[in-house]
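Page 42, continued from yesterday. The earlier attempt failed because a stray header line got pasted into the input along with the sequence. Redoing it now with the clean sequence only.
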Amino acid sequence: MFEIKDKIYWVGYKDWELKRFHGDEYSTHRGSSYNSYLIKDEKLALVDTVWTPYHEGFVEDLDRLFGLDKIDLIVINHCEVDHAGSLSYLLEKIPDTPIYCTKKGSEMMKKHFHKDWNFQVVKTGDSVNLGQYKLVFVEAPMLHWPDTMMTYVQGANLLLSNDPFGQHYVSPRYFNDQVDQGELYYEALKYYANIITPFNKLVLAKIKEVKSLNLPIDMIAPSHGIIWRDNPLQIIEKYEQWASNYHEGSVTILYDTMWGATKKMALAMARGLENKGVPAKVINTAKYDKNDIITEVFRSKGIIAGSSTINNGVLSSMAAVLEIIKGLKFKQKVAASFGSYGWSGESPKIIEEWLRESGFEIIQESKKINWDPTADELRECVAYGEAFGEKIKALVIPEQAVKA
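This time it went through. Structure tokens are written below.
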């Protein structure tokens, strides 16, 4: 338990050992936390719970510190089990406690837990008086599930945002001004790139709506990671940037290789990009964390993706990354493809078509080399990178002029 504001407590769980999340879909190099909050006013309100494996300790701590029978209501901002997973065990102890959630949340919890609990369905603008404080609900569908909402604590100027504005990042500290800023922002960016990206338009619309409510915000407390108390609006400003087809003017070269030929091509193309003053990062998709790869793609204006040809197709690590990229629906990014081959050579065209279907603009013909590249062929790869770099600069410089 930790008091984050007067009468408002963090009562979550810090998971130092967590390394994978969403099954095996998301890497959590710095662990994570499941942030639950309890407001001890004239009425006691619990906002969200913790992930199912930690339900017993969570409920026992609530009982020891506050008394379960004193909890008047529960708010579930989002029913995914890392937030609502302790409900079944908790409601065995206090079965009739009202649960405030969206309409979609009540429907989804019935499917998750197979219980018809005391659901109190709310929509944007609905509120509950606790005494000194009032809870005001703001629906946020598809950020990042259909049931998601945020809870604003009026009187405390506190936004309990659930998944938006969070990070998979655990620390002995609680607030953004107490932790390494580079780590914090990387994890926030990684979270956005891998989870929130498909909903960019909804993010911008929701931020506009929240701003129109003119709610004073002194603190933003998400459901994972660090709480924003020092200039909390900075993370909202970042979300506005990230939702606006964000890039840093760089290029990421993704490749996988069997015997090194495609790697040689990738490194030569990177030299060409650097010759034109375009920052380039070279990533072997078989040896790099897939979520960190996506974060680099998110930061890039363009990607060049390559693979050796195997069985008339692409190597499996490249196929997996391309599938993730397709689902994230990146906008206003450009691409090209390349690869080495022995006798059939289909991989560059397969990659090109995959990228086109994923929404990338293909700005250069694919490049393929038979067997191991010669010195002359590597010079061609350098020239290929230079040409791609010139096109990136032609795209980025006008954007920078507009922003200036």
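Notes: The two ends are 46 Å apart (CA to CA).
Reminder to self: strip header lines before submitting.
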